Amino acid sequence: MSSGYCFSFGPWNISEGADPFGPTVRPSVAFAEKLRLYKELGFDAVQMHDDDAVPEIEGKSAAQVEKDAAEMKRMLDDEGLVAEFVAPRLWEDPRGVDGGYTANDPECRVWAIDRSKRTCDIADVLGTKMIVLWLAREGTYIREAKNAIQAHRHLLDAINAMLAHNPRVEIAIEPKPNEPMDQAYIPSIGHAIALGQMTDDPARVGGLIETAHSLLAGLDASDDMAFAMAAGKLWSVHLNDQNGLKYDQDKSFGSANLRAAYNQVRVLELGDYPQTGRYVGLDVKAMRTQKADVAHKHLANSKAVFERLVEKVRSFPADIEEQCRASRDYEALEMAVLDHLLGK
Ligand code: XUL
Ligand code: MN
User: Fold this and answer.
1) Is the pLDDT of residue 344 over 90?
2) Ligand nearest to the CA of 248
3) How confident is the model at residue 1 (pLDDT cuts 50, 70, 90)?
4) Among this protein's residues, is 293 annotated catalytic?
5) Quick check: is 223 in a domain?
6) What is the pTM of this model?
7) Which of 36, 234, 263, 327 gives 20 to 30 Å between its CA and that of 102?
8) How many domains does the chain fold into?
């Protein structure tokens, strides 16, 4: 039985396995081959950085960018796929070393906004309204490096410039508290939604919650999702998992904390997420130890766990929940949840 959810991932989720301490361990998978894998693995939509859609975007004219994006749109159409969002990848360019939007160098800030406008143009051609902003290097290693008040105003200037450049786009901010920076601006969904309210068009700014990012901020991903949903701002999710406060692990969904994964699915169910037409993105990474021919199992496994948890949420006895709440017996409720998850 279909769960009613639609799934997406990004081409970076099939990777060569490099980490900060060692090189790649698997050959690159050609982009066309990655696209072919989407349907095979049961996914409907592709999440893209601007330079996934238009490789070597820097140095290309606006006309060339649009031409290349149109070619990408044809490739997606041929595979029966759609683009979920486009995200400006500012963090790999030398001009983004000090952050893009919040760089102290005004020329870098101009570059970052120009590139983000190109990202909006690409979204138009690919037929999606959604831009995701993961504010990777918008922060500092030492607090004295920037004027943080000014930095937040620069973030607003950048978002307002994108909203003005393209009246169709909607911007989902993906908060993360650290990595690559020690301390990032906009570390939580609360900050993201508040920043959106300060823009020129709050209705066009929302959020994307990633499980690991919430955990790194010491927060619960299901409550972060609930908060965003209560505000009508949960525009996408990046489900994955994280084994404690370490580097950003992007483990398979449910693999570190099945109960927390259950609660993320539960909140999506409570908020009728499938009815919103939004996607469930799986921002998961294969273990570096995984051999090339099985280096996409993390995607299929994450989706399978999600769908099994949907069944678990839907089959939880509502009467027990009601009785336990009415008698304020949350020990009994907890045991009922554990019994249900353990299959008793
Ligand atoms: C970084 C992260 C990114 C964004 C897309 O931690 O999650 O993959 O999701 O730029
Ligand atoms: Mn992510």
Assistant:
1) no
2) 1
3) low
4) no
5) yes
6) 0.97
7) 234
8) 1
| 52 within ligand 1 shell (Cβ under 6 A) | no
293 in any annotated domain:
yes
Q: Is residue 234 part of a domain?
A: yes
pLDDT at residue 331 greater than cutoff 60: yes
Catalytic status, residue 49: yes
Question: Is the model's pLDDT at 168 over the cut of 60?
Answer: yes
User: Residue 195: its pLDDT value, please?
Assistant: 98
Q: What is the residue whose two structure tokens read 């009728």? A: 272
Ligand 2 centroid to 189 CA: how many Å? Answer: 13
Whether residue 43 is predicted with pLDDT greater than 80 in this model: the reply is yes
**Does the beta carbon of 248 lie inside 6 Å of ligand 1?**
yes
Look at ligand 1, atom 5, and give the residue with the nearest C-alpha.
134
Residue ranges near ligand 2 (ion) with Cβ within 5 Å? 210, 238, 283
Percent of the chain at pLDDT > 70 equals 100
Task: Take atom 3 of ligand 1 and give the residue whose Cα is closest.
Answer: 134
**Under 8 Å between Cβ of 299 and 41:** yes
Question: Does ligand 1 come within 6 angstroms of the Cβ of 134?
Answer: yes
Centroid of ligand 1 to alpha carbon of 90 (angstroms): 12
CATH number, domain of 88, equals: 3.20.20.150
Average pLDDT over residues 146-167: 98
User: What's the rounded mean pLDDT across residues 57-74?
Assistant: 96
Domain boundaries, position 48: 7-315
Evaluate whether residue 320 is within a structural domain: no
Q: Which ligand is nearest to the CA of 133?
A: 1
